[in-house]
Amino acid sequence: MGDYLTGIVEKQKNGIPAGVVSICTANRFAIKSAMLSALKYDVPVLIEATANQVDQNGGYTGMTPARFAAFVQEIGKEINFPADRIILGGDHLGPLTKSSRNEDEAMSYAETLVMEYVRAGFVKIHLDTSMRLGSDPVDEPLQVITVAERGARLCKAAENAYAELSEKDSSCPKPLYIIGSEVPIPGGTQSAEESAEITSPEDCKDTYTAYKDIFKKHGLDDAFSRVIAIVVQTGVEFGDSDIFRYESDKAELLIEYGKKNLPVVFEGHSTDYQTEVSLSEMVRDGIAILKVGPALTFALREALFALEMIEQELYSGTEKKLSDLRGVLDNAMIENPVYWKNHYHGNAAEQRFARKFSLSDRARYYLSVPSVGDSVSLLIRNINDTEIPLPLLSQYLFREFDAAVKDEKKVSAEDLICMHIGFYLDNYYKAILPELQ
Questions:
Q1: For the chain, what are the domain ranges?
Q2: Scanning 190, 322, 382, 391, which has the fewest C-beta atoms within 10 Å of its C-beta?
């Protein structure tokens, strides 16, 4: 499916708006919903894992790249999604999780990481060496040449892994690379004052040129010809309760430079919660790769909370054991605050609200906690044990109510969850398909 991605670049460079939705998540419901949306709009699906989610030791999901690839394929089989229309990507692949170590140790770990992704069949590879390492001077800025040299080192590891892979299967596509790392902090900004500063044309040029020259020096010309995008800061961002919309006029100089001078497209990170209009403008402006993640698990959390309200209406006062999902989830977050304590601030009441409703959705890190998983499973069983009265469905999931009325059949809890996530994804798929606008 590498041809699909390179085809998007070709269209963009010929003045034709085209894009791809990058689903950056390891959540089963979000991946399934993305596949259902891709079937609906008749396009391939791009699923990406990050270096902290999935690595050679399992990451925080417990999955290696090979296991993640199998996990995605398993979900595809459940809904008869064509395996040859699944594209796997690796995001922020580099020494991200080992940045406190010295260069040799951190980069050695990162080389193994990248090789494992390529061996597992990941095609879209984001080489990210933008972070300062433990042996780097703390009082000097990290030079773009240093970043590019480290990127070339990882690229060489990826190419070696591909050579091994192609000996076993000559039909496997070559890796396609993403360079650059000028992105918002993971999980969104912390306050409304931290709006994103758009990448300057000069910085974009310096990054692209440095990578091109360094790759050539290391004999990686062929690999560099497979660089399809550069990550830039486009001005989009979100925080606990703030969303910074895309403003084309503010990014005008960067967009103009990309269209006139680069053979690649831009990759936009943190596009979560952008409107269909904003996303369409981004695609029109050459920001062809639209990454989304937290918004999808935010939608999942919305659907689960709505189903819990329905569960309470259906079974309160009966002997049925209830899920108490909100209580169980909050207890899990309080017991292990590592994933949200640096993101949610304010007094106890403000933190409690953020744990449930923040746009940065740190709750997603706790959905795999056994107690939370058991609660979600119980909730789904309770909902599926009966048919939701239409007035109750309209009260808590009114958009799904319309679909249920039209289909005139019982919908499962899983159906409702995937539909709800799908409403968020509609904006993305419509943005990359101008004929639908």
A1: 2-292, 298-427
A2: 391
